[in-house]
Each structure stands twice: as structure tokens, then as C-alpha cells.
TrEMBL record:
InterPro entries: 2pore_dom_K_chnl, K_chnl_dom. It comes from the Bacteria. Its main location: membrane. This is Potassium channel family protein. Keywords: Ion channel, Ion transport, Membrane, Transmembrane, Transmembrane helix, Transport. The chain crosses the membrane at residues 6-26, 38-60, 66-87. It comes from Tropicibacter oceani. The keyword Ion transport applies. The lineage of its organism: Bacteria, Pseudomonadati, Pseudomonadota, Alphaproteobacteria, Rhodobacterales. It is found in: Membrane. GO terms for biological process: monoatomic ion transmembrane transport.
Length: 119
């Protein structure tokens, strides 16, 4: 259980680090405000790409392509791991419910029980 939380925490920290690095990079290279740099980083990382901010410098364009290739991989893994985490939590909850309520294999309605002969 603790291992799952450690994975989630590591992924969140990695995402925060990538967003911070991208924000600082675009602030320095493109000269955008902190908010514009952050916005561009998140929009690019999430593949939304509104297009209202576009890198104008060569370093900005090259940095953006590298950022997309690296960032999208981490973003995809993070989304996948969050999905797995949610599925595991649901499975644990289902197992807890079955253990708590018991595993009744009898039909809920005796009238619906299968018959051995013809009707």
C-alpha cells in the first residue's frame, strides 16, 4: 500500500519538476512573463496547444521540441499510473465489501433459480 503512494508522490514530484523547468526555461529564453511561461508549459505538456503563445527564438523552438518529447512521455506515464492507482483502489474496496458482506452464491431471488427440468 505504501509503495503505491510512493509511486504517486514520485510522479507528482516529477510533473511539478518538469513544469517548473519548462516555466523557467521559457521565461529565460523567450522573455515571457512567469504566468505566460507557466501557461505555455502546461498547455504544451497537456497537448492542448491553444497557439496564442509561440516560441520566436531558435532556442525556444528547439527547447519546445525537446520539452514535448520528454514531457509527453512523463505526462503519459503519470496519467496511466493515476488510472492504475484508481483501479487498484476500486478493487481493494470491492474485495473489502465482499469480505464484509460475505460471498453469497445463492441467487438473490429464489424464483429466479435455474430449474433442472423443463418448464
Amino acid at each position: 500500500m505504501k509503495r503505491g503512494w510512493l509511486k504517486i508522490l514520485t510522479l507528482v514530484a516529477t510533473l511539478v519538476a518538469i513544469i517548473a523547468i519548462g516555466t523557467v526555461y521559457f521565461r529565460q529564453v523567450e522573455g515571457w512573463s512567469w504566468l505566460d511561461s507557466y501557461f505555455f508549459t502546461v498547455v504544451t505538456l497537456s497537448t492542448v496547444g491553444y497557439g496564442n503563445l509561440v516560441p520566436a527564438t531558435v532556442a525556444g523552438k528547439i527547447g519546445t521540441t525537446v520539452f514535448i518529447l520528454l514531457g509527453l512521455g512523463v505526462f503519459a506515464v503519470a496519467v496511466q499510473q493515476f488510472g492504475l492507482f484508481a483501479m487498484r483502489k476500486r478493487e481493494e474496496h470491492t474485495e473489502w465489501l465482499i469480505a464484509r458482506l460475505g460471498d453469497d452464491t445463492d441467487p438473490a431471488n429464489e424464483d429466479d433459480a435455474p430449474t433442472s427440468g423443463a418448464p
